[in-house]
Prior knowledge:
The chain is of the alpha/beta class and 216 residues long. It is 34% helix and 35% strand.
Amino acid sequence: MVINLSERYALLSSWLCELREIQSQSDRMRFRYNLERVGELAALEISKQLEYEDKEIQTPLGLSTGKVLKSQPALATILRAGLPLHNGMLRIFDKADNVFIAAYRRHMHDSSLEVDIDYISAPEIDGRVLIVSDPMIATGASLAKTLQYLLEEGRPKEIHVVAAVACTVGIAHVLSATPDITIWCAGIDEELTAKGYIVPGLGDAGDLSFGPGVPL
């Protein structure tokens, strides 16, 4: 299932406009903040689908009953670009365990892409809700391989993916590789260049958040 959050929240569309606009992108702190807000809103939407239980608590003046999560989700992100989205979700799911994955794309001479994953730090994810943040789903190759690696670590109860911008090509690729997931997007674009960049997209989320860099 794919959910375009901009169709539900007009305000989210304005955050996405700032993320896309070249003039606004010169402010890295603002760019990261808007990604964090996308993460917060997506986390709130996902929280509506989770399981809760009643809990009785003692206040200074008496007893009160409220609802709490039955179990905490695990939040995963692909370094480094996914960190702002991840931080936004972590503010909502502030007791969640965290998963970190180092993945990068290598452009081959024949114009194909190879995805390398050389680091994963993960808690036990069997039977848990897993939420993966990836700001840009372009070809979907990095995300599909990341999900494959995570599924080798355990079998989550359900998987959610949160993205700022996704391309229809990448969405199709990810869903074909891992069908039983839900993808939450702030925006969906139709075009992908031969080098795997989303059009109109927003550029390189990692560079715009943290400055230029290449894998060493």
